[in-house]
């Protein structure tokens, strides 16, 4: 069966789409990749918060899936909203890659550094770690951000380890932040294969059960926190324990909670936020 697989058109997105395509070919499907452009790709200068943040890299692809123009959508799980879009389901999560954040351009954080990132989650945790840092907004795909950081003379930037690994740019990584220092975005490191309701069987055999267990717990916790808190949020499941945090964007306060049940962890954080 020929499956039309929709993906963003950046170099990293197409590498990820090819990973998904390989998994689908192994199931006996023929695959045609369909590159697409999203709101997050078109607007590369505005802060994420101004264009919607979560979901800005998936909405148009989801619309194509619902309209029947593609059969499978490939997303970085961290880019998805925390709840499923009506009419769509994640039919498979591929085996998760390194979910941690990477420091590029330096091997450690030191006082007064100029660091590039567009993520309020990363900004908040970095400033909580070292308040003297100068945080500079940096948008664009991985190659663009690496180039901009050099052109602007930044001391470092922060990117996802998984993206650098997938692009063969792991040599750029000076430090893989321990999750105790920098808690990742919910779903970071996992690729989601999204399909229409009732068509899960198209991709289900490619599902990695352990990755699904962890990512779904993270998404459930993030959804519960997001319903009652506008602060930067991070959630990560290490296989045994779910950890989450909320923080002020300027790093002036940061609260963590951990446990087994996603809703209980979310409730604990929201109690502090109130």
Highlighted features:
five-stranded mixed beta sheet, D-Maltodextrin-Binding Protein, domain 2, 3 domains, single chain, 274 residues, Double Stranded RNA Binding Domain, alpha/beta
Q: What is the compact description of this entry?
A:
The protein is an alpha/beta fold and 274 residues long. The protein contains nine helices and 13 strands. It has a five-stranded mixed beta sheet with strand order 2-1-3-10-4, with helices on both faces.
Range of helix content: 25-40%
Overall 3D form: globular
Tally of structural domains = 3
Going across the major beta sheet, what is the strand order? 2-1-3-10-4
Class per helix and strand makeup = alpha/beta
Number of strands: 13
In CATH terms, what is the fold-level topology of the largest domain? Answer: D-Maltodextrin-Binding Protein, domain 2
Please explain how this structure is put together.
The protein has about 270 residues and is of the alpha/beta class. It has three domains: about 1-95 and about 190-205, D-Maltodextrin-Binding Protein, domain 2, CATH 3.40.190; about 100-175, Periplasmic binding protein-like II (D-Maltodextrin-Binding Protein, domain 2); about 210-274, Double Stranded RNA Binding Domain (2-Layer Sandwich), CATH 3.30.160. About 30% of the residues lie in helices and about 25% in strands. It is built from nine helices and 13 strands. It has helices at about 10-25, 40, 50, 60-65, 120-130, 140-150, 160-165, 210-225, 260-274; strands at about 1-10, 30-35, 70-75, 90-95, 100-105, 115, 135, 155-160, 175, 190-195, 235, 240-245, 255-260. The strands form three sheets. A five-stranded mixed sheet has the order 2-1-3-10-4, with helices on both faces. Strands 7-6-8-5-9 form a five-stranded mixed sheet, sandwiched between helices. Helix 8 packs parallel to helix 9 (about 260-274). The chain is globular and about 55 Å long. The relative contact order is 0.16. Residues about 50 have low confidence and may be disordered.
